[in-house]
Specification:
This protein is of the alpha/beta class. It is built from 13 helices and seven strands.
Length: about 350
């Protein structure tokens, strides 16, 4: 037993050494992304991502994490332009209450605290909460952090929040119905929820999805997408449960007693015109042969079938009138739909 314990200790020490070396490599590799006044957060992220040091998705994942505060600030400005809570009379004399669902690295909490809100974050993964704590401490932000699953009811949250934020979260929750029911129940009277929801039908996301950069995986339902993912990463965790259409989301929100308003900012990018999307569809066609060759054999035929059906639908989508062109863009142009939701009256 003693020999086994010593062997285990030696293995643990060897792994810690490998992890430290990987973290140092990552910290050096992305030095240009190091935030001002955020050295502790940056180093913690490098350690957190050490297991991905040789993974092709590391640059995407690391940049997304380390820019959390700046992304939060941009989103906060956009949200407050659409729903400017600080000027509403019922908030005079107290700070508005903001909940970030799936708060991850805490960037949105930082942004709204800087704008005078009382902030709370809920996150199912304690590792992210630990990183958020480092980030918040370095930014001088006092926030309530809660470890929990946003698909389960939480009595203390009922009717409590003036603003709920869920950025790149809804596709990861097991129960969409449970999640949206909580969004409704956790809003204070007159409150608003802001969600950024990835669009799996965006042509560049079909070429490489926003989570794993895998060809065609957004065209598959969860069980088949997981089979595809695990064929490439047997020890990985696949938790992207859905890529519904915008109509399917609209119906789900309505069933949960919520309104569904797509912000104009979703399409307010100069390059998002019909010709641009058609060019992206052509790029998808050009990438198809190479992309399908990289799909594991167990999933290749199905991805090819779904891709052909997807391109047929996109080609057949009417775009003669202004209304039809707007609908075509809403379906295929944005990488994310930016949505405001309120309790339905």
């Amino acid at each position: 037993m003693r020999e086994a314990a010593e062997r285990d200790a030696a293995n643990d020490a060897a792994w810690e050494s490998v992890e430290r070396d990987a973290a140092r490599e990552i910290a050096a590799r992305f030095q240009e992304l190091r935030p001002s006044g955020g050295d502790g957060f940056y180093e913690a992220l490098a350690r957190h991502k050490a297991h991905l040091v040789d993974h092709p998705c590391l640059p995407m994942h690391f940049e997304y994490a380390v820019t959390a505060n700046d992304r939060g600030r941009r989103a906060a400005d956009r949200i407050l332009h659409a729903a400017p809570f600080p000027t509403r009379s019922r908030w005079i004399g107290r700070a508005p209450r903001v909940l970030d669902i799936g708060c991850a690295y805490g960037g949105f909490l930082v942004a709204f605290a800087e704008r005078g809100a009382r902030v709370t974050g809920i996150e199912v993964d304690k590792r992210y909460l630990d990183l958020a704590q480092v980030n918040l401490r370095e930014q001088g932000v006092d926030a309530e952090l809660v470890e929990g699953d946003a698909t389960y009811p939480k009595r203390s949250f009922r009717g409590r929040f003036d603003l709920l934020v869920a950025n790149d979260v809804v596709e990861h929750v097991i129960s969409l119905e449970g999640f949206l029911t909580n969004v409704r129940d956790w809003l204070a009277p007159g409150g608003v929820a802001y969600l950024e929801i990835p669009n799996g039908a965006q042509p560049h996301y079909v070429i490489a999805d926003g989570h794993y950069a895998l060809f065609g995986i957004t065209l598959l339902e969860f069980d088949r997408a997981r089979e595809y993912f695990l064929a490439l990463s047997p020890k990985g965790v696949f938790d992207t449960y859905r890529y519904p259409t915008i109509d399917e989301y609209r119906a789900a929100f309505r069933a949960a007693g919520l309104t569904f308003e797509v912000l104009d900012d979703t399409l307010r990018i100069p390059s998002l015109d019909v010709g641009h999307v058609e060019a992206q569809l052509d790029q998808l066609r050009a990438a198809a042969a190479d992309g399908l060759a990289r799909v594991p054999e167990c999933s290749r035929a199905l991805v090819a079938e779904r891709l052909a059906a997807y391109l047929e639908r996109a080609d057949a989508a009417p775009r003669r009138t202004e209304e039809e062109r707007h609908r075509f863009l809403l379906d295929y142009a944005p990488g994310f739909w930016m949505v405001l939701a309120r309790r339905a009256s």
